[in-house]
Amino acid sequence: MPTNFMTEGNVLLTGVSFTGAEGAAGSTISWTGLSDPDDTGADIVDQDDDGRLDAGVDTFADPGVTFTGYTYTGTDGVEYPIFTDGGGNYAIIVPNATTQTVVPSSGISNTFQAETAASDVYLCFGEGTEIATPEGARKVETLDLGDKIIASDGRPVSVKWIWKQAVSTIFGPAERLRPVRVSSGALGNGLPTRDLVLTADHALLIEGLLINASVLVNDTTIHWVPLSELGTSFNVYHIETENHDIILAEGVEAETYIDYVGRSAFDNYEDYTAIYGHEETITELPYVRVSSRRLLPASLKTRLAIAA
């Protein structure tokens, strides 16, 4: 099923030319001017829902406007995609187009790529997140197969796999994929012990409920991480154990991997299958999962200063 990604503006490229044939390996697109900036939001449609932009397949605003295979790395380090209507018109997708300064009036794109790097990543910890282990806190990216971590009830459990994905910010992840920062102490009782960054659909166990991080955003102590902080890409990790479990991340109860999202979405999927040979379905813990703010108890909204 196609996935829509809302954008926040675009601007037309003028004086367009190519080095090499358009769409050929190693070719680039260049321009000598910008025109008709438009701050109107429209959707990029990931037609095959693979989390990548595919040249000639994925569309912007209209089914006839497709990704060219070219991107431009702005001064903010973010890659911005270029689309065409096939009639000689080219638009670069960039937020706040009428006032933007990240794409110059003349420039040369990155080289053609038929398919961009994956950005469709779910349910993950940000790099540097400290996980409780019998030997003390360890950064998630340093954990490995067979290492012991501590479940929230004190049991040592073995790491079955550390899933890793490099997330591209090329056209801005959908809201459910974006990182959320839970500031130190935001949940009360000094928790988390440090800022905790995790993707929007990764759930924390709070008052007996598995609550997606996105639901907790209050724009003060819990907020979306600005894409401008992330550069062209950022790494995220998820811990798989034998069962769906609750572990401690920066002291906060957080879930381990549950296979709502196929393991093949991660960069190291082939390494996993080389060791395990096949995938096993994981039974979800019997907690109520809260993925919508309207389902939060009023008392929790009040405690965490979350708007109704």
Protein described:
The chain has 308 residues and is mostly beta strands. It is built from 2 helices and 25 strands. It has helices spanning 269-276, 298-303, and strands at 3-6, 10-14, 17-19, 28-31, 33-38, 43-46, 59-60, 62-73, 79-84, 90-93, 107-108, 125-126, 130-133, 136-139, 148-150, 156-168, 179-182, 196-199, 203-206, 209-212, 222-224, 233-241, 246-249, 252-255, 288-290. The chain has an 8-stranded antiparallel β-sheet with strand order 1-6-7-8-9-10-2-5, with no helix packed on it. A hairpin with a 2-residue loop joins strand 19 (203-206) and strand 20 (209-212). It is globular and about 65 Å long. It starts with a strand and ends in a 5-residue tail after the last helix.
Keywords:
308 residues, mainly beta, Endonuclease - Pi-scei, Chain A, domain 1, 2 domains, 8-stranded antiparallel beta sheet, 4-stranded antiparallel beta sheet, 25 strands, 5% helix
In the CATH scheme, the class of the largest domain would be Mainly Beta
Uncertain residue segments: 118-123
Order of helices and strands: EEEEEEEEEEEEEEEEEEEEEEEEHEH
Oligomerization: single chain
In short, what is this structure?
5% of the residues lie in helices and 38% in strands. It is built from 2 helices and 25 strands. It has helices at 269-276, 298-303, and strands at 3-6, 10-14, 17-19, 28-31, 33-38, 43-46, 59-60, 62-73, 79-84, 90-93, 107-108, 125-126, 130-133, 136-139, 148-150, 156-168, 179-182, 196-199, 203-206, 209-212, 222-224, 233-241, 246-249, 252-255, 288-290.
